[in-house]
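Reopening: structure tokens for the S-adenosylmethionine complex, inputs below.
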Amino acid sequence: MDSSIHPHKNSALSEFSWDGIVPPKPAEPAKVGLFRFIYKATRRNPSVDTFLTGFLPHLKMLPTVAAERAVPGFSTSKVNICDLPRGQWATPLVDTLTVIKAAKGFESKRLLEIGSYKGSTALLLAQNTDADVRIWTLDMDPQHGEAYRGTEYEKRIHRVVGKATVGALEGHGSFDFIFVDADHDYASVFEHTVVAFRHLAPGGVILWHDYHQNNYLHGANGIGEALHMVSKKFGRNIVSIEGTTLAIYSEHLDWETASLESYDDSPEDSDPWSDRKIRHI
Ligand SMILES: C[S@@+](CC[C@H](N)C(=O)[O-])C[C@H]1O[C@@H](n2cnc3c(N)ncnc32)[C@H](O)[C@@H]1O
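Re-run output (same inputs, fresh job):
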């Protein structure tokens, strides 16, 4: 691993400071209790969870923007995909494609994936970026990364084994592109996000997977609440990308999410022929 390749990107950690306390999860609306009761009564049927979660707008408080407004060159950049993401935890293709387009569009050079699993996304990022791009993958499972291990791309991917806590990436410098996709409960997402902000290079970009959660009632998914809390507590405008399950924060010149507001995705625009929304699968 040649970390001298982009010395200007390998600056010290950002000034981002955190008191070490995860703020308490906001109180849930009263109807969540009723929904949980119904969900349990149906023997924790995932379809019931998905259906009822759709009635919980407090989970989707971030502004939503079209992908073209959040990612440079979104509708023109080319992505090569040979194999598809593998395994039940792998990021689905629409989101993977958007993550790759973001890394390309922002011309990122030092990439970090927090929660990497088999490494499908890391491999696709390596396959779709220039030879001087370096990727770090952090995952607590020592076996992570089978997708790229033994391939020609392995030399550009720096595998780190450990929990995504503050300090886990000490000595690895900062990153101009960070993809957060590890534990999904409220406190973990909050902490992983703090780690990401601490390691974000000036002008950098963070993406989160699974912001658009559709399975809240089983209890292990607090991404919406955590990102909303981070956004408020640290004054960072995180937005969600329409048609994906992703959220994004960007300081990149001319693409700062600080300047983005929700755009009008009202149902009036429901003519299937004029609709340009990404179809979410
Ligand atoms: C949803 S999978 C990641 C999928 C991957 N980003 C992809 O695109 O294929 C979540 C991964 O996060 C890891 N993980 C969960 N909690 C973690 C933590 N606290 N610290 C580090 N890794 C964690 C798991 O071992 C798992 O491999």
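Confidence is low (pLDDT under 50) at residues 1-10. The radius of gyration is 19 Å. Marking as resolved unless the reporter disagrees.
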